[in-house]
Amino acid sequence: MTPTFSPLSNVPASQPVSAFASSPGSSGRAAMAPRDFANRSIRPTVRIAGKVGEIAQGVDEGGAWLVSGAVTAGPFEGRAWAEPGVSFRLTSRDGSPKPKAEAAVREFLRLHGVDLEAAGHIHLETITLVGKGLGSSSVDSSLAIAVGARANGLVAHPREMYSVLCSIERSDPVWLCDELVFARPEAGMYEVWGPQPHFILIAWDTTPGAMVDTADAANLDVHRRDHMAEYGEILAMIRTGDPGLILGAATRSAALNDRYLPKPGFSWARGLAESVGGGLICCHSGTYLGVLLPPDSSPGLIGRVRSGVLEHGVQPDFFLMGGPNE
């Protein structure tokens, strides 16, 4: 059965879905995905659907880079809002500490000279799994900065926000879900290469009991330097914007990554993706794998992938990536 997602057009005009300022070549839109939350008395002001790993991740002469795997819809949507005019606090609905998000928003507010005594109370309502490569810290920090900016009458410019995020740790510009984004997390800079082609993504956790630390995964760059020529070919494929070439590039990047951060069932997953004419995406610093399918894939084809994953003993999640293809 084809997964159903709520379209952005269902969001009332009075309820913004983004606090981000647009920049040239970037919509700056935060995505919406269907998810029921218990607290309906407070309407969230910013929403981000998150990401599933990276289309590709590697190194070149300029250092580490990634091509974002941000999604426009999926089951791990994060939401945030703020109470302006009160002493600065950042809390999460589940009570878990968010030190990276707090550090990021504090740095953003410091850069803008905001007095923390009246910077506002930021509420995070996020359910992204931690240590899986789904961008939990990037989602938390992006939401916190966006609503912190709004509460203090500031503009959260996407490029400034990414720079702040990467000053705390290597991050992903997860709010640029409509764009094909090439980012350098060590430098805190990114380029928009064009619109992100539309894909259906069926993904799953290969090792539910395991976690990968982003900082530790950065050590993989040492091994990636041995494959700079192939990474150059992968980037050239992606930069065309051609959906078919992007599927192939994602599979090649996932295969290179699996040499150094292996995931159970990788060979089976690659075979499944290739058998349906799709691509394989991975969390290069996490535990998820996913099959990327063209947007016009039939319900039968989608069901075949879902059944294959279930038969392998894991529960798949469904996501949408990008906007409509031309």
The third-level CATH topology is: Ribosomal Protein S5, domain 2
Mean of all residue-level pLDDT scores: 87
* Alpha-carbon distance between the two ends: 25 Å
Shape: globular
Number of separate helices: 9
Order of helices and strands: EEEEEHEHHEEEHHHHHEEHE
The CATH architecture is 2-Layer Sandwich
Task: From the alpha carbons, calculate the radius of gyration and give it in angstroms.
Answer: 19 Å
- Output the strand order for the largest sheet: 1-4-6-5
Helix content: 25-40%
- Secondary structure class reads alpha+beta
Number of strands: 12
| Assigned CATH class | Alpha Beta
Low-confidence stretches: 1-19, 22-44
- Main beta-sheet strand count, sense and barrel state: 4 strands, mixed
How many separate domains make up the residues? 1
Beta-strand residue percentage: 15-25%
